């Protein structure tokens, strides 16, 4: 049988100390304050993405808008689920999820978009997904083994963001693109 690095009596004694910290023990290796800040930035990102996708869902028009709008709505729901996961992890770590609408876009990695053209909407959503992919990849690498649970949350969300980017790229490939008109 493998031995623990720390004897069980010491682990039990430590578990009784600072019981109010919940899952954050002496073994937690990350900078908790910074992790909570990063989680709140990701929460803001997901809320902004939810709002952007919702706007695009409601304002998509044109010949090809119905299936694209349906994709926007599905992504909006999934982005909200991501926000909920980040908020839940913040609370689990003893932090406060920041839903303040006055500072939301300033804290988010992705930007809000109010494009009126269907192709522009898809492009902006693809850009936002790519921003989230780059940020969440970097965050997961930064967390490493210091906070494996938060890292896994980011990795799970990252996998879905990659699917979203692939969906948006696929929509762009299927939609007719604007062609430049003849030169005058």
Automatic annotation (TrEMBL):
PROSITE patterns: FERRITIN_LIKE. Residues 166-177 have a biased composition (Basic and acidic residues). InterPro entries: Dps-like (IPR014490), Ferritin-like (IPR012347), Ferritin-like_diiron (IPR009040), Ferritin-like_SF (IPR009078), Ferritin_DPS_dom (IPR008331). Its cofactor is heme b. One of its GO terms (molecular function) is heme binding. Fe cation binds at residues 46, 82, 129, 161, 164. The keyword Iron applies. One of its GO terms (biological process) is intracellular iron ion homeostasis. One of its GO terms (cellular component) is cytosol. Gene3D superfamilies: 1.20.1260.10. Residues 29-179 form the Ferritin-like diiron domain. The keyword S-adenosyl-L-methionine does not apply. Keywords: Iron, Iron storage, Metal-binding. Residues 164-184 are annotated as: Disordered. This is Ferritin Dps family protein. It comes from Streptantibioticus cattleyicolor (strain ATCC 35852 / DSM 46488 / JCM 4925 / NBRC 14057 / NRRL 8057) (Streptomyces cattleya).
